Amino acid sequence: MKIKEKYQLDERDIDRIVEMAWEDRTTFDAIYDQFGVPEKDVIKLMRKEMKASSWRMWRERVQGRATKHAAQRGFQKGKFKSNLQRAITHNKISKR
C-alpha cells in the first residue's frame, strides 16, 4: 500500500511533510503529531518525492541529528523569539 493512500494524504499534505522534514529544527515527532506519519514512512516518502542526489544529501544530514528527534534535543522549543517581534504582521520590528 502506498503511503499516500495509507495515511490519506493529498498533494498539499505531502508537500508540507517534505518541507517539515527538510527543516533541521522540525522533529519527526511533530510530523507524526500533525499528520500521523511515523519516521520510517517519512523517510520512504522523502525518497519517493525527491531526486536521488537530494535524498542522499538529506539522509546524510538528518541521520543521527539530535534536533530531528525530540528525545535527543537539548531544548524544548524552537528558535528564540524577540519581544520586539510583532506577533502578526510579517515579522517586522514595530516602530517605537
Number of helices: 5
The rounded distance between the terminal residues' Cα atoms is 57 Å
Shape: globular
Number of individual domains: 1
What is the rounded Rg?
16 Å
Percent helix: 40-55%
Strand segment count? 0
Query: Could you describe the largest sheet, including whether it forms a barrel?
Result: none
Element pattern in H and E: HHHHH
Percentage of residues in DSSP E strands: under 5%
Q: Uncertain regions: pLDDT < 50 for 5+ in a row?
A: none
Mean pLDDT: 76
Briefly note the structural class of the backbone. Answer: mainly alpha
Explain what you see.
- With 96 residues, this protein is mainly alpha-helical.
- It has one domain.
- It has helices spanning 3-6, 11-22, 28-35, 39-49, 52-62.
- Helix 2 packs across helix 4.
- The longest helix is centred in the N-terminal third of the chain and has 12 residues, at 11-22.
- The protein is globular, with a radius of gyration of 16 Å.
- The N and C termini lie far apart (57 Å).
- The model has no long low-confidence stretch (mean pLDDT 76).
Task: Give the tags.
96 residues, mainly alpha
Write the layout of secondary structure elements.
Blueprint: H1 3-6, H2 11-22, H3 28-35, H4 39-49, H5 52-62
Helix pairs in contact: 2-4
Compact summary:
This protein is an all-alpha fold. 48% of the residues lie in helices and 0% in strands.
